[in-house]
Task: inverse folding
């Protein structure tokens, strides 16, 4: 019997593990793939208090090691469902079933795709969802980035140091991301802004060769690029728990700043819950709050 099972080893889940272990609770963290969440692919973090100029990889390693050193148990198993009863919760994976008093769902989210023909076939052949993972393959080549949030802006900035030209394509004329990053991009001579436009076609032989871009007036243009980096949002990984907790129309777990779901003893933290701001610092805050509320519940 665990006190708290945390599903997801991103910043929210690992922060929850740190707080729960400091309260001397028996903690199990279940992670489907690798620890760190999406922050592990961020080249430089500049907006986290007291940790300026740290890479996402180093940040993820630091928080993981801190949780483990405090005694959190981590198992790399995908949680498939949660069985809820008044006295206990059971988290079922493909390998095992684990019983606990409280659950924190911190599964984060997945990359949203453009939905274009041949997009899946071209993944790894010009299409990428991780600039820091694949950017080096496009040194001195033309690339495009699609999106208007912080991830897209950071990807474009990162790629501007590698690629010959970076086309930043956004469906609106203003960006959701930080103005400071937008201003940095405007200073880069090799960054070209294509606004009020969307990518409507992928042209390829065996690899991506060019993209068709359509603006709000319906006019199209073909841009020759070797790489297309998509950063148009995320899809929350909550489907496995839809029969237990309430989701909104976009699939996010409904929870306010208390991180409480509609089910007693089940909490949520991070990018998979309904919230206005999804940043590293808010993920960590969610983890601390969810753990604190879980500790109150089981006490």
Result:
């Amino acid at each position: 019997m665990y006190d708290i099972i945390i599903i997801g080893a991103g910043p929210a889940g690992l922060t929850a593990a740190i707080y729960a272990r400091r309260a001397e609770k028996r903690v199990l963290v279940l992670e489907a793939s690798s620890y760190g969440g999406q922050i592990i692919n961020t080249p430089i973090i500049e907006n986290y208090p007291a940790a300026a100029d740290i890479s996402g990889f180093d940040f993820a390693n630091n928080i993981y090691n801190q949780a483990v050193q405090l005694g959190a148990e981590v198992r790399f198993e995908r949680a498939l469902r949660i069985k809820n009863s008044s006295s206990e919760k059971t988290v079922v994976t493909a390998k095992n079933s684990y019983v606990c008093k409280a659950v924190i769902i911190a599964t984060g989210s997945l990359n949203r795709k453009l939905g274009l023909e041949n997009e899946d076939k071209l993944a790894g052949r010009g299409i990428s969802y991780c600039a820091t993972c694949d950017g080096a393959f496009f040194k001195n080549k033309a690339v495009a980035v699609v999106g208007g949030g912080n991830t897209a802006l950071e990807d474009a900035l990162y790629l501007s140091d590698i690629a010959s030209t970076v086309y930043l394509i956004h469906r609106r004329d203003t960006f959701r991301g930080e103005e400071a990053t937008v201003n940095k991009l405007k200073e880069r001579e090799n960054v070209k802004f294509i606004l009020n436009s969307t990518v409507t076609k992928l042209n390829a032989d065996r690899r991506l060769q060019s993209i068709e871009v359509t603006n709000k007036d319906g006019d199209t243009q073909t841009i020759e690029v070797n790489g297309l980096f998509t950063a148009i949002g995320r899809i929350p990984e909550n489907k496995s728990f839809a029969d237990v907790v309430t989701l909104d129309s976009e699939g996010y777990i409904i929870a306010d700043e208390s991180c409480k779901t509609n089910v007693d003893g089940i909490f949520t933290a991070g990018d998979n819950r309904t919230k206005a701001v999804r940043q590293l610092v808010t993920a960590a805050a969610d983890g601390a709050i969810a753990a604190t509320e879980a500790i109150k519940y089981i006490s």
User: Anything to note?
Assistant: The longest strand covers residues 97-105. The two ends are 15 Å apart (CA to CA). The chain is about 25% helix and 30% strand. The helical segments are 11-22, 56-69, 131-134, 150-160, 179-186, 280-298.
